[in-house]
UniProtKB/TrEMBL annotation:
Lineage of producing organism: Bacteria, Bacillati, Actinomycetota, Actinomycetes, Streptosporangiales
InterPro entries, sorted: Fe-S_cluster_ET (IPR051269)
Natural source organism: Nonomuraea spiralis
Coiled coil: none
Protein name: Ferredoxin
Keyword field contains Transferase: no
Statement: the UniProt record of this protein carries the keyword Kinase: no
PANTHER family cross-referenced by the UniProt entry: FERREDOXIN
Cofactor: [3Fe-4S] cluster
Keyword tags: 3Fe-4S, Electron transport, Iron, Iron-sulfur, Metal-binding, Transport
Pfam families listed in its UniProt record: Fer4_13
Superkingdom of this protein's organism: Bacteria
SUPFAM superfamilies in the record: 4Fe-4S ferredoxins
Amino acid sequence: MKVNVDELVCEANAVCMGLAPEVFELDDDDQLHILLPEPPPEMQDRVRSAVRSCPKAALSLED
């Protein structure tokens, strides 16, 4: 699994960071950074939940 963010759509709501802080991080300029673009299997359920929970649908997954 690989996590992607559409930076033009992301509004820095931080929902993803709340659900999977090991994978997502917002910087001081409200830019989302993906810390683990290919999360390990034990994190994948939380990452899927974070992607589904994004209010702007700015996140996507590649299998």
